[in-house]
From TrEMBL:
<dbReference type="InterPro" id="IPR000801">
    <property type="entry name" value="Esterase-like"/>
</dbReference>
<dbReference type="InterPro" id="IPR029058">
    <property type="entry name" value="AB_hydrolase_fold"/>
</dbReference>
<protein>
    <recommendedName>
        <fullName>Esterase family protein</fullName>
    </recommendedName>
</protein>
<keyword id="KW-0732">Signal</keyword>
<dbReference type="InterPro" id="IPR050583">
    <property type="entry name" value="Mycobacterial_A85_antigen"/>
</dbReference>
<feature type="signal peptide">
    <location>
        <begin position="1"/>
        <end position="24"/>
    </location>
</feature>
<dbReference type="Pfam" id="PF00756">
    <property type="entry name" value="Esterase"/>
</dbReference>
Length: 438
């Protein structure tokens, strides 16, 4: 009996104390994937409007109708098929996504080799120190899922949990069997290196190179700096609409690739490509946008063409959303930073792609019908619909006469792995069209 009372007393004490501890811990807020609280979905003329036309909210994320008036017209292909080689414009594929035969290793095909090395922030000038955000253990992105935006600006997220830190990343260099030592080779820079999305990349390149559908190229997978989105090193590198990441690759990564893998990389921008997924997908485009003298070819899976730039830039308040569309906030003075002081500048112009002379960029990308939709409930800014952002990018590329291919993919989520396995060979072949193959 005494033991029973002891157990009961211990249970009651634990119940009180454990409940207090549990209440003291912040809840692990996961991705929202719905219209954020307090969002404007009714007044198109008011700031930060979120258009829900053509969205089916019975799924999370909502499923988009590819025939919605919000998206550019596209050619719908029979299920299981892809656009003809070299075709440009907008296409609808799916819902079935079987892996392409080129993603499977074949007997008798020469296989390339992969060499790896690591790089730390201590070896960097551009990204030293690194950036680390304090999140609750086991709760990814917790500090930005419960933060706030600036007063009267739903696009400006306040992040107070980031601080300097150290990063270390792995760089994997694929060298094709056909590479001739001492010669300059074309290459592709791959963001988010090591991702499972690229598990078929080496085999695919082996097969395509052997079939002479792409040139014998070096593939450089660069790991990201860690974490995700606003306030993280990865977000700092990929979501910034600037030339900083391209300079990091050019000045700090490529020389180490040549030294560690015993290769020479071409200086010809037509022989240089970039590739990425999600935020590294928009980074792949940004590299070519700011440095068309370095890169002409871009491939991206679910690129983050949304407002995820951090820190907030008053001269480009919509981040990557402003590649294709105007900032959604209220009209006001445009500001730039001069000597650390915010100074009024010229009024905001039209979106970046529409405003600039056409650049020699060849761009292949896809977006899924169940891609991300306002994953963070704290930023109802009208600029966080991934599918819409990709479709609007395709629209402005067409208006400006760019060479591009955009796939609207049925039955596909963000960075959809089955779709990547289905499209990777044809995407690589499309991106490298026109480059001489020995």
């Amino acid at each position: 009996m005494t033991n029973s009372w002891t157990v009961l007393a211990g249970t009651l004490i634990c119940l009180v104390s454990c409940t207090s501890i549990a209440l003291a811990q912040p809840a692990c807020v996961t991705q929202n994937m719905a219209v954020p609280p307090g969002a404007n979905t009714t007044d198109r003329a008011a700031p930060f409007f979120i258009d829900t036309t053509g969205l089916d909210f019975k799924t999370s994320p909502p499923t988009r109708d590819p025939l919605s008036a919000n998206y550019p017209r596209a050619t719908e292909l029979p299920d299981g098929t892809l656009p003809p080689p070299g075709a440009e414009g907008n296409f609808i594929i799916g819902p079935t996504h079987n892996p392409a035969p080129e993603t499977i290793a074949k007997e008798g095909v020469p296989r390339g080799t992969t060499k790896s090395f690591t790089l730390s922030s201590k070896q960097s000038t551009i990204y030293n120190p690194g950036l680390i955000r304090d999140d609750v253990a086991g709760c990814t992105n917790s500090s930005i899922m419960t933060t706030v935006t600036a007063p009267d600006d739903k696009s400006h997220m306040i992040v107070t949990t980031s601080h300097p830190g150290i990063w270390s990343r792995t760089i994997d260099v694929y060298v094709p069997a056909q590479y001739v030592r001492g010669t300059e080779a074309p290459f592709i820079v791959v963001g988010d290196g090591g991702s499972n999305a690229y598990k078929d990349l080496a085999t695919t390149l082996d097969n395509l190179i052997a079939q002479r559908r792409v040139p014998p190229m070096i593939a450089i997978q660069i790991g990201n700096g860690g974490q995700d989105a606003q306030g993280s090193q990865r977000g700092r590198e990929y979501d910034a609409v600037s030339g900083a990441y391209a300079q990091f690759v050019e000045r700090e990564v490529l020389p180490l690739v040549e030294a560690n893998a015993d290769v020479k990389l071409t200086k010809d921008p037509d022989g240089r490509a970039t590739m990425g997924l999600s935020s590294s997908g928009v980074a792949a485009f940004t590299m070519a946008w700011f440095y068309p003298d370095l890169y002409h070819r871009v491939l991206a899976f679910s690129p983050t063409m949304v407002n995820q730039q951090w820190p907030h830039d008053p001269s480009l308040r919509g981040g990557a959303w402003e590649y294709h569309s105007a900032w959604t906030g209220p009209a006001g003075p445009n500001l730039i930073s001069k000597a650390g002081v915010l100074t009024p500048a010229e009024p905001p112009g039209v979106p970046l792609i529409a405003a600039a002379p056409v650049k020699p960029i060849r761009f292949w990308f896809f977006g899924g019908d169940q891609d991300l939709f306002y994953p963070n409930p704290t930023i109802p800014d009208g600029m966080h619909d991934w599918t819409l952002s990709n479709a609007l990018t395709a629209k402005v590329l067409a208006e400006r006469g760019y060479h591009y291919q955009f796939l609207f993919v049925r039955n596909a989520e963000h960075v959809d792995r089955p779709t990547i396995a289905q499209t990777l060979p044809s995407a690589l072949e499309w991106v490298w069209k026109g480059y001489p193959i020995p």
